[in-house]
Amino acid sequence: MKQAIVVRSDLDMGTGKLAAQVAHAALSGYEDAPADAQKEWKNQGQRKVVLEITGERALFEVHENAKAAGLPTALIRDAGRTQLDPDTPTTVSVGPAGNDAVDRITGSLSLF
Amino acid sequence: MKQAIVVRSDLDMGTGKLAAQVAHAALSGYEDAPADAQKEWKNQGQRKVVLEITGERALFEVHENAKAAGLPTALIRDAGRTQLDPDTPTTVSVGPAGNDAVDRITGSLSLF
Fold first, then answer.
1. Does the pLDDT of residue A49 top 90, yes or no?
2. What is the pTM of this model?
3. Is A27 within 8 Å of B7 when comparing Cβ atoms?
4. What's the rounded mean pLDDT across residues A102-106?
5. What is the CATH number of domain A2-111?
6. Residues A105, A43: contact at Cβ < 8 Å?
7. Tens of pLDDT along A3-22?
8. CDD domains, alphabetically (chains A, B) (predicted)?
9. Domain ranges in chain B?
10. Which of B5, B52, B112 sits opposite A23 (nearest CB)?
11. φ, ψ of residue B49 in degrees (nearest 5)
12. Which of A25, A79, A111 sits opposite B16 (nearest CB)?
């Protein structure tokens, strides 16, 4: 099992800010997963991959595709106190779920 | 309330890897928190700050200080498949907990 966290590389986020957004997406996606998936993923070491994407539209599409496939997913918007405009969508998590199911949604994206 | 995630800046981690380690620490620290703290922190928007630190020893110290103060905390070691030696300690989370309690442990560290 794994969880993919997809981050926009077209925003001007510093490393710390980007990491906080990824953590936010990871936790919210985890909470969206069924209890048995949560448990199994943690038992396997809660594997995560961070992937990059360009643009708001492509990010929304990942989120919609994950929802349509019935996978846990969360879309994070930045509160916008620093660096970005308020409510800028920054990240989407897909999973935790089976590797193949996650790859069907995010398999074409590159590691960040 | 907030959660601080402290990351070593003396390791040669790429941005994606660093973000994954931060997410790992955030989730493990969240799981270490009492249910009422989890809930209140989420209701407040699960505020996170990512801070930097230099060296393994200083990282361990943050973890020990958080434990001694009774705060939720998690120390993450990298599995070491890429970029780092196996079991390299990379990140420590402190909280979710009250802002003042977290600041007593991490208040001297800079934003990443």
1. yes
2. 0.95
3. no
4. 98
5. 3.40.1490.10
6. no
7. 999 999 999 899 999 999 99
8. PTH2
9. 2-111
10. B5
11. -125, 140
12. A111
